[in-house]
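Aim 2 progress update. The chain analyzed this quarter is reproduced below.
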Amino acid sequence: MTTIATVLHWLRARAENLLALLLLSMFAVFLMQVTFRYILNIPVDWTVEYVTLAWLWGILFGYAFVVRGPEVIRLDMVYLSVSRTWRRAFDIFGGVAIAAIFVVTLPAVWDYVDFMARERTAALRIRFDLVFSIYLVFAVSVIVRMAAQVVDAIRGTGPHVHTPQDPESHDYD
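Predicted structure tokens:
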């Protein structure tokens, strides 16, 4: 394993650890919320906000750094029923379209995140630019993934979809 591959593997493992900690903290804060609200009859507003923010960060961070291509949920009933040539066409068209949408909207997203630095969340008082900054990371990761999908489709080496019905569906050849 090369040095770069080792570092990337280590970073991916730490990203998984961070995502697991986010999920654990969400669960713990949720239990705290239930305890305070329904057992102690003391409503606590920051818990709802924390769980919402942790969920947002968990989903977007998870897609950007943890979820691998084959693990992405796909609508593959049509995709797997057509020939490999059509699959490549779907991958090229879909990848270009999705990447283009994210590239075109990226400046507006940047402006919005920058603008939201003026506002803070209601309970935890976290600046909204910090809350929404994960979307920028997510958007860039979508662009990179879609570009890789297009390149794989052009080369004929993608999309690495494994199904029990079609064990050879992991490649176009």
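Residues 143 and 160 are 18 Å apart (CA to CA). Residues 3-39 form the longest helix (37 residues). These observations will guide the mutagenesis experiments scheduled for the next reporting period.
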